[in-house]
Specification:
single chain, 125 residues, mainly alpha, Arc Repressor Mutant, subunit A, 2 domains
């Protein structure tokens, strides 16, 4: 999955607004899922041929709208739609980081989640 943004220099709409609108639409329609890591401001500016301030302005507007969230030095991500989904996305991201630190592959990480879910079902039955 990749971010596909097109900026029309001849459009009446300002480039930052084009960028803001396209990212918001992609997130709303699920083409950019919750937790998707966006490029850095400088990286996206370079890729699109825009000034870094233009991309930063779009990112600030998106963050203000709740579409994206910045996690300090860890980057900028598509935000969850509500607090519960945001908490689940954060826990999932933390789990992925931890399993990678422990050297687990994706199959082993998934198997561990399935086992935990199975055990929880048995406890609640």
């Amino acid at each position: 999955m990749s971010l596909r943004i097109t900026i029309d220099a001849d459009a009446d709409t300002a480039p930052y607004e084009q960028l803001r609108g396209q990212i918001a639409l992609e997130a709303r329609e699920g083409r950019l899922p919750v937790g998707y890591k966006l490029p850095t401001v400088r990286g996206l500016a370079e890729e699109l041929g825009l000034a870094a301030n233009t991309v930063a302005k779009a990112y600030r507007a998106l963050e203000s709208d709740g579409v994206i969230e910045t996690r300090g030095r860890h980057g900028t991500y598509i935000a969850a739609e509500d607090a519960r989904a945001r908490e689940v996305a954060a826990a999932a991201a933390e789990y992925v980081q931890r399993t990678r630190r422990l050297g687990l592959d994706e199959d082993a990480a998934r198997a561990a989640v399935e086992e935990a879910l199975r055990a929880a079902r048995e406890r609640s039955a």
